[in-house]
Amino acid sequence: FNGGKVSGAFQYLNQKDNGKVKIGTLDTYLTGIKIAVNFDRGLSFKTMYNQVGDDTIVGSGTYYSDLGLNNFINYTDIQIDGEALNAGAKSYGMVVGYNFKNGFNSAFKFVHIEQDLTKNSIHTKNTRPSSNEWNIDIKHKIDKQSKVRIRFANINYESSHKNEFDENNLRIIYDFKF
Length: 178
Description:
The protein is 0% helix and 49% strand. By secondary structure, the chain is mainly beta. The chain has an eight-stranded antiparallel beta sheet with strand order 1-2-3-4-5-6-7-8, with no helix packed on it. It is globular. The termini are far apart.
């Protein structure tokens, strides 16, 4: 429409106990929806939502290989701490991006994660409080093999727990494809 396009996607993961878990059974799910609007001028908008069942998704964090997928990412996985895969978590977010013609692109990202502290994960009780996070990302594609990314993130936890603290995070990442 008028130089733009609308797209959407739905994701569903149903995780069942395979008998290999030593600390009890694991039956959970992840569901999500994403809607995006992209304009020919380089401007884009995206909104997304995810929800997790009664157990934390096994394979989250550094254990993505357990899922049988090499790059499993839930739609709201724009956050630094990756808390959207906790038991009972409901998360939603939005991204406003702009692609420049010279290889640069930028994005403002926001995600809210509503934690359910009554749900158990496979290892421990979910003790992470709800949080808001926003990111500013700038990327530059140098050539076909490499790009540099800069991300500034701010995480605001909705808790005064002694082990929870708000966080500012700056990352500079250089990607090179062999």
